[in-house]
Amino acid sequence: MQLEIPPPTSPKLPGILRLPPEVMIKILVLLNVNSLLRLSRTCLVMDAMTDDDRLWKPYIGRGVSDETSWSKIERAAITLQVSYR
Question: Which InterPro entries match (predicted)?
Fold first, then answer.
């Protein structure tokens, strides 16, 4: 039985494992285990937040070109971040 390993940029991989290999090597050289764990957790939370429909639903079908709209997105992201903790 052959184990299929998805490519590094596959959406099936969680967190920092989605990064290209050359970027991942630089990160592994610079960070210790605790920092890597925190980075991985941060990536997973940010990924979940950006995939959450509650963040983008108010802006689907509308333009987000003005600064006010970006402020609303930022506030929604902060609100979602609190709910993910």
Answer: F-box-like_dom_sf, F-box_dom
CA distances to 13, 51, 55, 56 from 75, in Å: 28, 16, 9, 12
d(CA 38, CA 42): 6
- pLDDT-derived band at 2 (thresholds 50, 70, 90) equals low
At residue 19, the 3 state secondary structure works out as: coil
Question: What's the pTM value of the predicted model, to 2 decimals?
Answer: 0.43
The string over 60-73, giving b where at least 16 C-beta atoms fall within 10 Å of a residue's C-beta and e elsewhere, is eeeeeeeeeeeeee
Torsional sign, CA 54, 58, 59, 64: negative
Q: What is the DSSP letter of 4?
A: P
Token output for 42: 């941060």
